[in-house]
Amino acid sequence: MVLIYTGDGKGKTSAAVGQAVRALGHDAKVAFVQFIKQDPGLLDSGEARILRNLGVRWESFGAGFTWVEGNEEKNRILATEGWETVKRWAMSGSYHLIVLDEFTYPLSFGYLDLGEVVSFIVEHKDDEKFPHLVITGRGAPEALIAAADMVSDVGEVKHHLADTGIAAQPMIEF
After folding, report:
1. Lowest mean pLDDT among 3-12, 138-147, 163-172
2. N or C: the chain end with fewer CB closer than 10 Å?
3. DSSP readout, the chain?
4. What confidence tens digit (pLDDT) does each residue in 39-94 have?
5. Which has the closest alpha carbon to 103: 147, 49, 55?
6. pTM for the full model?
7. Which residues are CB-contacts of 135 (< 8 A; sequence separation ≥ 6)?
């Protein structure tokens, strides 16, 4: 199956982490591929730490925020490397579930060819050894949504970062 968590609200990556934990509870082999976000070695996140400890293969293909000068070209290059890695892992039969965190951004920014990505997913998603894919990020493109089996639109009602000025908190944001 292809599952998408999209929308402007907080919790898309958290939902994907929960999906990964659920898969681990079924003795599944899980990989987690992050796009855009910096490598957890630089940005120490609780989810990366615990999932790695639980045996999840975790790879980051991001330079960080796209509005920081120089990051756009780095993210474009890393997105291509990340997508090629995902395709290789998906076709290997080695994983039951692969999370593509923040994957909508390389698609909407034009770093990756949306048609090629959707064609690959549609062509292979029904193959017996093809893993479940969990995709997160704001603004999931309509073609990706059409190819998915489940889409959740995570909406924002209130957010402490915008509404109160409280800084990003360990255990809450990372």
Report:
1. 163-172
2. N
3. -EEEEESSSS-HHHHHHHHHHHHHTTT--EEEEEESSPPTTTS--HHHHHHHHTT-EEEEE--S-TTSTTHHHHHHHHHHHHHHHHHHHHHHT--SEEEEETTHHHHHTTSS-HHHHHHHHHHHTTSTTPPEEEEE-SS--HHHHHH-SEEEE---S--HHHHT-PPP-TTTT-
4. 655 557 899 999 999 999 999 999 887 767 778 899 999 999 999 999 999 999 99
5. 147
6. 0.92
7. 2, 3, 4, 5, 99, 100, 103, 104, 144, 148
Domain 2-156 belongs to what architecture?
3-Layer(aba) Sandwich (3.40)
58 forms bridges with which residues in the sheet?
32
Q: What are the sequence ranges of the domains in the chain?
A: 2-156
